[in-house]
Write a structure and sequence with these properties.
Its main location: membrane. It contains 18 helices and no strands. The chain is mainly alpha-helical and 454 residues long. It has one domain: Orthogonal Bundle (Hydantoin permease). Helix 1 packs antiparallel against helix 9, helix 4 crosses helix 15 and helix 7 packs parallel to helix 11.
Length: 454
């Protein structure tokens, strides 16, 4: 039986960072920061990511490397026959649903890239870009084809394996992503009036910070690190015992925060420079940014560059989500990898079709007052991911001994007892409470609790 492993430490870090970055840092972070108060939100997000996200990320690394197994089998090995084995299955189901509608957004990026290259995005008004976006997502033929194309790329890469597929591609896409980002940031901050956008992102104005935006920042810290779905358990299972786990985790976090910063610097200076509003919400990337770039010299070229890096980030996340299914079903028997990649990739594409049609022929089909796309998004982001993160934060201190955890963390590193104990107690006590706070908020239970005790 042929088993996979990472060829290099940097390959693992880039692949894991690519999984974490994805749409969370480039699509979701800018519009949440835009609606959440800018600089104050960014500062709170940064603190939550380092203080609360890092312990959970290190914890998933420990589970994966300790067991050397896929996400489902890892929990079964540590806690056989117990309730806790549901965590791995929950992660697989969450990633399955997530990738089914995530691939739809990937398809939108491909369509926009095609339209930008052929020049059909030039010269529209801001309202015209909003109308164009609505027309594109409502058209079933192109959106389904683009969604299929996005999944096809993911299948081809994952089928080639961890080393020859995911690692090699990540080593190309991630540096390219940073290079393209730097080009955009240089152009964006050089615009007249761009300083207002820079101040909006980097200068905290706590008067704009609300309890809701603090909770958004907490949820975003977990979402952008890909924690809670056991993707990082699967990636870490390919690691050698010589890998410094805390160092790898903080490298990924630094890259993630840096990309979020670059995304803000690429977007907000231009938005303020041309007098547009930063709180446009989820359509910021597709309806507001084209208007920004259309007002720049060589704007179409810069928008194409942005769409390319956006696509790279989406694909690197898709690789990790598809890999969790492939690893769980092949049990690391690499001879089955190609067949499983195609089978699972095509199944995900088929399950994603209703989401793709949610703004077109199925726009009137609502469940719980939501389109299928919105229902899947809400279920994953607000229920399944926080639930997975909560269960993992409880599982590690309850089912893995402190001596086992320290032994695994210390392998390949010189981590001291002080760091270990801080990590352990933050994960055991602080992280679960923070996740429960987010959970109660997204389920709308805070008002109920306040009314109950008032």
């Amino acid at each position: 039986m042929s088993q996979e492993h990472w060829k290099s430490k940097i390959g693992f870090i880039l692949a894991a960072a690519g999984s974490a970055i994805g749409l969370g840092a480039i699509w979701k972070f800018p519009y949440i920061a835009g609606t959440g108060g800018g600089g104050a939100f960014f500062l709170i997000f940064l603190l939550f990511t380092v203080i609360l996200g890092a312990p959970l990320l290190i914890g998933e690394f420990i589970i994966g490397r300790r067991t050397k197994l896929d996400a489902v089998s890892a929990y079964q090995k540590i806690a056989p026959g117990s309730f806790w084995t549901v965590i791995g299955r929950l992660g697989v189901v969450t990633c399955f649903i997530l990738l089914s509608f995530y691939s739809v957004i990937g398809g939108w990026i491909i369509i926009y890239l095609f339209e930008a290259i052929r020049g059909s995005l030039d010269g529209l008004s801001q309202d015209g870009y909003g109308t164009l976006f609505n027309d594109i997502i409502a058209n079933p033929g192109p959106t389904l084809f683009a969604q299929f194309l996005f999944m096809l790329i993911a299948i081809l890469v994952v089928a080639k394996g961890v080393q020859k597929g995911i690692e090699v591609t990540s080593k190309i896409m991630m540096p390219a992503l940073f290079l393209l980002f730097l080009v955009l940031v240089i152009r964006s901050v050089s615009l007249d009036g761009s300083m207002e956008g820079i101040k909006f992102l980097l200068v905290p104005d706590f008067s704009k910070l609300t309890s809701e935006s603090v909770l958004f920042a907490l949820g975003q810290a977990f979402f952008t690190l890909s924690v809670g779905v056991s993707v990082m358990v699967t990636y870490a299972s390919y690691l050698p015992k010589t890998q410094h786990l805390p160092q790898a985790a903080f490298s990924i976090i630094i890259i993630n925060i840096f990309v979020a910063l670059l995304a803000g610097l690429a977007i907000f200076p231009g938005v303020f420079s041309f007098g547009l509003e930063p709180d446009a919400g989820p359509v910021l990337i597709f309806a507001v940014l084209p208007a920004v770039f259309s007002n720049m010299q060589f704007g179409t070229l810069f928008f194409i560059i942005f769409l390319l890096l956006f696509l790279f980030a989406a694909l690197t996340s898709a690789f990790s989500m598809l890999e969790i299914f492939v690893a769980a079903t092949t049990k690391k028997d690499n001879t089955k990898r190609t067949k499983r990649s195609w089978q699972l990739g095509m199944l995900i594409f088929l399950v994603g079709i209703p989401s793709c049609l949610s703004y077109g022929v199925l726009s009137d089909f609502l469940l719980f007052d939501k389109t299928i796309f919105d229902l899947f998004d809400y279920t994953v982001s607000n229920i399944l991911m926080p639930l997975g993160a909560l269960l993992i934060s409880l599982f590690i201190p309850l089912r893995m001994s402190k001596s086992m955890l320290y032994e695994e963390m210390a392998l390949g590193s010189n981590v001291g007892k002080v760091f270990f104990h801080i990590w352990y107690y933050v994960l055991k006590y602080v992280t679960p409470i923070a996740i429960i706070i987010v959970f109660l908020d997204v389920l709308g239970l805070w008002d109920f609790i306040f009314d109950l005790f008032s």
